[in-house]
Amino acid sequence: MISKFTSIQGKSREYYTLLLSLMGLAGVGILTFFYIEINGHGVTGMNNQVVWGLPHIFAISLLVMASGALNLASMATVFAHNHYKQFRRFSAFLAIALLVGGLMVLVLDLGRPDRMLLTMVHMNFKSMFTWNVFLYSGFVLLCFFYLWAMMSNEKYVKLSGSAAFAGRVILTTGTGSIFGVIHAREVFHSAITAPTFIAVSLTSGTAICALLLVYTYRKTQRQLDDKLIYGLRNMLLFFTLMVFYLMAVEKFTKGYSPSFYEVETWLLTGPWAWLYWGGIVLIGLLTPLFILSHKTWGKDINGIMVASVAAIVGEVSYVAHTLLAGQTYPFNPFPGYSVSSTFQDGAVGSYVPAMPELLLGLGGVGVAGMIYLLGIKFFRLLPKKAEAPESWLPWSP
């Protein structure tokens, strides 16, 4: 069933144009870092209340997507869906590319990345950020171990694939817990935040895999069995329903408690409500659900591509809404205590992203795209002909 893995030729004008464009984005991102480093974070839209802005939205979106991108490999190695075995290398490599892109943005926006080693020497193990340093670096190492096993030593594939699967679940839980464990931020604080991040990672990771597989196979004139994309369609439909369910449970739980009336009303009608209703609900949830379950569009590859783009927009909107709404809602630094100060007590924060933030974030996207393009040119990541078993018939709307 699985034909020989081959790298692409990568000699066409279209390939080099795309590669140079992504390198340009990465270069602009690095130049923007020096601009912010020289002039200070005052040139960004971030302030004392909103310290995580547009660069962090790009970074966290890429990190969450990286975790979900590994799902395709896990389906074969951990859950024995052998028709996706042919995409394991692609899936693991894409996870590394997205993670590196996200981490680049995160590191370059720290303010003083030259002092990053100091934070590694003086670890604060009560902080989720400290644990995430280990989770991110550990996940990259596990993906490399998994790739090495697939390419050189098949007997370690089960072990490395299972470890990478566990690593990605822990990684996304850690990312979601950065927000979910903060008691002082009423928008963030929730036991369902981490599971919702996992579900969102599965939708966006599946969506980016479907988009890149179809695009890569079309542009390289390789054969890709449509049934494999229909299988991804079904995964995306299920994962989107899971996100819908988790968000509905969270809203119901918080809406049932009088102590959350004010914050929930603010989230649904406040200054960032457009991001919630437009980006998450309309584009990220309802649009993919409608297209993927439609009798005609759900069976059309282009329709599945549109639904995949909508799912990615929904993921970015979810991360943006979590960060921006969470930080601009009036801050309560000591929950359960009556304290007051002369600094922004009860004040709603404001935030308008600046151009340097956008360019820095796009730099991370450029790095991730560049790594992927170079990867499929220099490594044998994809089979020349991707086929599904004739007896396998994925569910169809």
From TrEMBL:
Q: Name one GO cellular component term.
A: plasma membrane
Q: Where in the cell is it found?
A: Cell membrane
InterPro entries recorded: Electron_transfer_protein, NrfD-like
Transmembrane stretches, by residue range?
15-36, 56-78, 90-108, 128-149, 161-182, 194-216, 228-248, 274-292, 304-324, 358-376
Q: What is its main location?
A: membrane
Report membrane topology. Multi-pass membrane protein
Provide the alphabetized UniProt keywords: Cell membrane, Membrane, Transmembrane, Transmembrane helix
Q: Which family does it belong to?
A: Belongs to the NrfD family.
Q: Under which name does UniProt file this protein?
A: Polysulphide reductase, NrfD
